[in-house]
Amino acid sequence: MEEGLTIKNLKERVNKIENILSSVAAGDMEARINSEVEDDFTGVEEAIDLLINDLTDELQQREKTQKELEERLATIQEQQKTILQQQEDLLELSSPVIKVWDNVVVLPVIGTLDSRRTQIMMENLLQKIVDTSCTIAILDITGVPTIDTQVANHLIKTVTAARLLGAECIVSGISPAIAQTIVHLGIDLSSIQTRATLQESMRYAFQQNNQSVVESGTQEHSPHGETK
After folding, report:
1. Using a CB cutoff of 8 Å and minimum separation of 24, what contacts does 172-176 make?
2. pLDDT at position 89
């Protein structure tokens, strides 16, 4: 003969279980049955409490993992900002505009040019022209291995913008490779004053300023070729 189950206050206890599960579903992970009755239904209540405990642990672990990921993401984003700022700083440093003489500024360019760097160069040069009121700007590209159509167009725009500010812009140091590229691309630089070397550009700038050029071991020459 089978023995019957011994369960006290079944209806109330089932209602309590439903309320506890509803509270957990609503986010109250502290809710527990904590039955004080010992009978055949107690195992069910304890099993439900264990289930809630396991669920709580898993949610806490997920929250911890999510927080760690968010912190890592924030760190990565901050590092990216730092890297971008450093790249901007390097671009600024790689495009120095120097006032080398009264009324003369020089922008020496070294390395590969891209549109971004060329744009910064243009901004720095024009700002220096405004700040110093110089009327002659030398853009020396001796250290540039090659240029493309977009970069060449930026250079042309730089020269044009400098003229609008009242400064003559001289491009020096065009290598044979760059010269061939410019011809091959069909870029017209006929409106731009060019010189083979920075030295020749400086000599031209001095002449435009009506300043004499004296070379070591030679006599001084005036801009008009007269010996002094």
Report:
1. 172/138, 172/139, 172/140, 172/141, 172/142, 172/196, 172/197, 172/198, 172/200, 172/201, 173/140, 173/141, 173/142, 173/143, 173/144, 173/197, 173/198, 174/141, 175/141, 175/142, 175/144, 175/145
2. 57
DSSP string covering the chain = -PPPP--SSHHHHHHHHHHHHHHHHTT-TT--------STTHHHHHHHHHHHHHHHHHHHHHHHHHHHHHHHHHHHHHHHHHHHHHHHHHHHHTS--EEEETTEEEEEEES---HHHHHHHHHHHHHHHHHH--SEEEEEEEE-----HHHHHHHHHHHHHHHHTT-EEEEE---HHHHHHHHHHT---TTSEEESSHHHHHHHHHHHTT--B--TTS--B-TTS-B-
Query: Which pLDDT does position 168 carry in this prediction?
Result: 92
Structure tokens at 110: 């070294």
pTM of the model: 0.55
Q: Is the pLDDT of residue 127 over 60?
A: yes
70: CB partners within 8 A, 6+ apart: none
pLDDT tens-digit profile of 189-208?
788 889 989 999 999 898 88
Residue corresponding to tokens 């006032």: 99
Distances (CA, A) of 90 to 79, 106, 150: 16, 19, 21
